[in-house]
Amino acid sequence: MDSKGKHAHIVKKTAKALGFDFCGITKAEFLEEEAPRLEAWLNSNYHGKMAYMANHFDKRLDPTKLVDGAKSVVSLIYNYYPGEKLPENGSDIKLAKYAYGKDYHFVIKDKLKTFLEILREEIGEIAGRAFVDSAPVMERQWAQKAGLGWTGKNSLLLNKHMGSFFFLAELILDVDLQADTPMAKDYCGTCTRCMDACPTEAIIQPEVVDASRCISYLTIELKEEIPDEFKGKMENWAFGCDICQDVCPWNRFAKPHNEPLFEPHPELKDMEWEEMTQETFAKVFQKSAVKRTKWEGLKRNLRFLEEK
């Protein structure tokens, strides 16, 4: 086995030891096929008020602009599917499953720091950066190139063994690693369940989502009032939305995660949403992704859900 293969083996062994479900490797190069797609998506204003999506266009497509001398992109999958859904206590208020426990940015970033430390011990001096939904990295495209799955009609990465309830993370490294074979086949076929189920009709065409119509965008990214046209269409999602994933046949393969930090805060299981105070919000969501909406944002969402 040459050094590229040997080092790739060390990377995959380390990924498994740190609890990642899948690990794939691809060459760090310009994403030529993605450039026109990204440009068309931005030109259609499908990013809504997320102005940052239009920033760093070149960096999104070229990993060597994020890490000098980048040679490999390591894509990682980390499961967050809960063992049981949160009870809805008659109020039917819903949170996206990824937000049940501690904010994934912190949980996975800590693992990635350890990952880099182990690689430097075993391989030698490596320059690299760790990413988890925190920089202009086209994570789904890299994961597909690394053979971890294909892009579903809802634009999420789908994996044959576990569906889509997982986080993606990347290490961009300046070391040559043996690359994996890209996932060339689309296993969605003629299924359109995700498109048919979206109550706000955010999935414009297969693999193209108008984010400005997506419930996740409306409840998290949008900082102003939610447009009236979406009244009665939110299906009681107060933070994020899982509809297109819940209906996806591939998610019948989802298995509960093994991450204690993703378990819900005890008080979240009995949350009285209408009575929730700012103090309760601060305590329950102190280390949660829900904190991103801030107290005022979550109250806005809950108010909007009442105005059916």
Describe the structure.
It is a single chain. This protein has 308 residues and is α+β, with helices and mostly antiparallel strands. The protein has a domain of 171 residues. The chain has ten helices and ten strands. It has a four-stranded antiparallel sheet with strand order 1-2-7-4, sandwiched between helices. β5 and β6 form a beta hairpin. The longest helix is centred in the middle third of the chain and has 19 residues. It is globular, with a radius of gyration of 20 Å.
Give a quick set of tags describing it.
308 residues, four-stranded antiparallel sheet, 10 helices, 30% helix, metal-binding
Proportion of helical residues:
25-40%
Q: What is the radius of gyration? A: 20 Å
- By secondary-structure content and strand pairing, the structural class works out as alpha+beta
Number of helices: 10
Q: Point out poorly predicted stretches.
A: none
Mean pLDDT: 92
Largest sheet: 4 strands, antiparallel
Anisotropy-based shape: globular
Q: Per DSSP, what share of the residues sits in E-state strands of 2 or more residues? A: 5-15%
N/C terminus separation: 63 Å
Strand order of the largest sheet: 1-2-7-4
Q: How many beta-strand segments?
A: 10
Please write the string of helix (H) and strand (E) elements.
Answer: HEHHEEHEHEEEHEEHEHHH
